[in-house]
Amino acid sequence: MSEPSIFFFEVNERQGVFHRRAFLLGGFTGLGLLALGGRLAQLQLVEAQRYQKLSAGNQFNYRLVPPPRGLILDRNGVSLASNRPNFRLIINKDKDLDAEAVMDDLAKLVPIDGTRRARVLKELDRAPKKAPVVVMEDLSWEEFSRINIRAPELPNVTADMGEVRVYPFGGAFAHVIGYVAKVSDKDLEAAESDSTQDQELLHHPGFRIGKQGVEKAFDRQLRGKAGATKTEVDAQGRVVRLDPAGDIPPTPGKEIHLTLDADIQNRALEVMDEESGAIVMIDCRTGDVLCMASAPSFDANRLVKGLSGAEYKALAEYERKPLLDKTMTGVYPPGSTFKPTVALAALSAGVNPAEHVVCTGGWSFGGRVWHCHKKGGHGVQNMHDAIKNSCDVYFYQMALRIGPDPIHTTATALGFGQTFDIGIPGQRKGLVGSREWKKQTFKRDPVWHPGDSVPYGIGQGYINVNALQLAVMCARLANGKRALNPRLIKSIGGVDQPHGDAVGDLPFPSEHLEIVRAGMAAVANDPTGGAYKQSQLGLGDVLMAGKTGTAQVRQYSQTGSRSNQGVPWRLKDHNLFIAFAPYDNPRYAMSVLVEHGGLFGSSAAAPRAREVMRVALLKDPEIRARIEKPMPMPTMNESDLSTDGAAPDAPTDGPDLPPPPPGVPQ
Question: Could you tell me the pTM of the whole model?
Answer without folding.
Answer: 0.83
